[in-house]
Amino acid sequence: MQEDPRKLFGRRLASLRKERGWSQERLALESGIARSYLGGIERGQRNVALLNICKIADTLEVDPAELFRF
Amino acid sequence: MQEDPRKLFGRRLASLRKERGWSQERLALESGIARSYLGGIERGQRNVALLNICKIADTLEVDPAELFRF
């Protein structure tokens, strides 16, 4: 994988969130994950772990695999 | 997601590794991830993070999304 997976994942998360018409605040509220942490994930600055990946996927009602389609 | 994602991920990783005919030692050697840590991931005891998820996927030559097909 050439590009930094954190950047790829962050971009994919942002696009799935926007597809749903949600702000970062809304995703934070719905998922229980801090807005600032979500912002860092979307900017490609966080090495997010499995439990949060699945929590985010569940919240967006997508399969976790969808977050890795990049 | 009902079941613990760490257990689901661990089982999926073990099956992909075995499909490839690799031992945990071989995957550890090829990926640069400690065998003991890989064992913990496969037993569902580790909250593995994005960079290691992608390193494992690259090593097994599968798309990271494959590791989430559970």
UniProtKB/TrEMBL annotation, chains A, B:
<keyword id="KW-0238">DNA-binding</keyword>
<feature type="domain" description="HTH cro/C1-type">
    <location>
        <begin position="13"/>
        <end position="67"/>
    </location>
</feature>
<dbReference type="InterPro" id="IPR010982">
    <property type="entry name" value="Lambda_DNA-bd_dom_sf"/>
</dbReference>
<dbReference type="Pfam" id="PF01381">
    <property type="entry name" value="HTH_3"/>
</dbReference>
<protein>
    <submittedName>
        <fullName>Helix-turn-helix domain-containing protein</fullName>
    </submittedName>
</protein>
<dbReference type="InterPro" id="IPR050807">
    <property type="entry name" value="TransReg_Diox_bact_type"/>
</dbReference>
<dbReference type="InterPro" id="IPR001387">
    <property type="entry name" value="Cro/C1-type_HTH"/>
</dbReference>
